[in-house]
Design brief:
Layout lengths: L3 H19 L6 E6 L2 E7 L2 H4 L6 H8 L5 H6 L1 E6 L3 H10 L3 E6 L7 H6 L3 E4 L3 H13 L1 H8 L3
Parallel strand pairs: 3-4, 4-5
Antiparallel strand pairs: 1-2, 1-3
Helix pairs in contact: 1-7, 7-8
């Protein structure tokens, strides 16, 4: 069972995902946490910003600003959906040691790669995260397929 603070941080990531959905985007949210505080929060803004790379994790890391390597190494990133190859690569590049995933049933990202490189990955199988993605895919299947590269 996740600790209460972990629940608080995942709720913040879910709020980011809901914000993205309300903006007409893809409902994936993320927060970067260091020393018990959110230092960066974000959501997928590919649609809103016309971006090829602005996934939730990327937005949260960007919004945290430049940080010393020691901060990244001690940080945990919370994300509502399993991180893709790009986001996982960024997590590895900056040495973020822990990833808390809301759900991976809708999309299985690079969890195996992260674990193989020593990152602690916890999957919550959160019903709210799953339902957000279910609603989004039902409403905008073409946008979902564009984002994950499916035909």
């Amino acid at each position: 069972m996740p600790e209460p603070k972990a629940d608080m941080f995942m709720r913040a990531a879910i709020e980011e995902a809901k914000l993205g959905f309300s903006e007409g985007g893809i409902p994936v949210g993320s927060v970067l946490v260091h020393d018990g505080k959110i230092i960066g929060r974000g959501h997928n803004r590919r649609v809103q910003k016309g971006s090829a790379i602005l996934h939730g994790e990327m937005d949260a890391i960007e919004n945290a600003g430049r940080q010393p390597a020691a901060v990244y190494r001690a940080a945990t990133i919370y994300t509502t959906l399993s991180p893709c190859a790009m986001c996982s690569g960024t997590i590895l590049l900056y040495g973020i040691g822990k990833v808390i995933v809301g759900e991976n049933r809708t999309f299985m990202g690079e969890e195996h790669l992260l674990r193989s490189r020593g990152v602690e990955v916890t999957v919550l199988n959160d019903a709210t995260c799953q339902e957000l993605m279910r609603q989004f895919i039902a409403a905008k299947p073409d946008l979902w397929n564009e984002d994950i590269g499916e035909p």
